[in-house]
Amino acid sequence: MKSGWVYGLAVCLMMxxxxxxxxxxxxxxxxxxxxxxxxxxxxxxxxxxxxxxGERGLWIRANHRQWYYADLSFRCNGLDFVNSIGxxxxxxxxxxxxxxxLVDGQRCPVASVVKSEPPPKA
Length: 122
Prior knowledge:
Shape: globular
Radius of gyration: 21 Å
Structural class: alpha+beta
Strand order of the largest sheet: 2-3-4-8-7-5
Oligomer: single chain
Number of strands: 8
């Protein structure tokens, strides 16, 4: 009887570390599947099209017809209603997780940019 109790206690004590390692593995797999991307602004017009995803992100199509999804750091008011936006690439000259989207004078920092499928049809 005592050995069963000790075994049960050992399993309970190990569970948090097992769960933590499982969470780390799934997070690493998610990052591996969606590596950070960069849209290079070699020439003017590196971005061909864009479509908002509400106020928290947007799909961007580069000149080479590849779609990307930019997740914003926080809600960007009016993103889903404006006709034009700006892309501030900073001194590096490429749109990535360190860039900013400009919407009606509001600066909306980008949290991540990953390659994506085209946006869903409405």
